[in-house]
Design brief:
The chain has 48 residues and is mainly alpha-helical. The chain contains two helices and no strands. The longest helix is centred in the middle third of the chain and has 28 residues. It starts with a helix and ends in a 10-residue tail after the last helix.
Length: 48
């Protein structure tokens, strides 16, 4: 976590990275939701 001190001078770059990560996470969640909606729920136990 020592990178925080180096990126303190570039908050815009850090925000940009966070936005990219959130966009990727949102896309993954959307895909997971689509898969979940497409299944009857019988394979749900595999996730748990």
């Amino acid at each position: 976590m020592s990178e925080e001190s180096g990126s303190a001078g570039q908050p815009k770059g850090l925000l940009e990275q966070m936005e990219e990560l959130m966009a990727a996470l949102n896309a993954d969640l959307s895909e997971l939701a689509d898969l979940h909606a497409g299944q009857s729920g019988t394979e749900e136990a595999d996730l748990g």
